[in-house]
Amino acid sequence: xxxxxxxxxxxxxxxxWSSNLWGLGxxxxxxxxxxxxLEIGGNVLDITWVYAVYLMFMGVGVIVxxxxxxxxxHEKLLVAGYGLSAVATFGYLLVNSIVGLLIVQILIAIxxxxxxxxxxxxxxxxxxxxxxDGFVWGLSSGLxxxxxxxxxxxxxxIVTIHSFDALFIVMGIVLxxxxxxxxxxxxx
Length: 188
Prior knowledge:
Growth Hormone, Chain: A, 7 helices, mainly alpha
């Protein structure tokens, strides 16, 4: 295949770039999450338990979705997860308490559980030729970190210049665009 020249198949391109766009949208909150939680009245312990519940929901969800995805279809679950992440991110606009934050975090955990195992399964199926697998996965991981680094800078700038509400609107728009890009995989 032609991976050394960064030419990707259509499916690989959809998977890779929509994932990076999704990482850009989700990554904007990054370390600002703790600042936001403090602004809505939370403390260090609140942030800790909400994030712990989020991770546990996501972990259980990834296992459950991973188990059923092979029979239901990876593409539809992946796109559903991307869409839910966009909707849930707009939900941050309504958060004014730790309970509200917990609800949004659980929705995002479900979205990631729907997306993550299916993205990996599809990317594995549609990329690599056995000779360049390290590069293909390196491209995926490396771009993910680069986009998240850029996202954190953008997020910090938006919150500093505008507000968390502005950040959540931008995040939601980026995630919606990512979902639309990812939905192109359904046409395959």
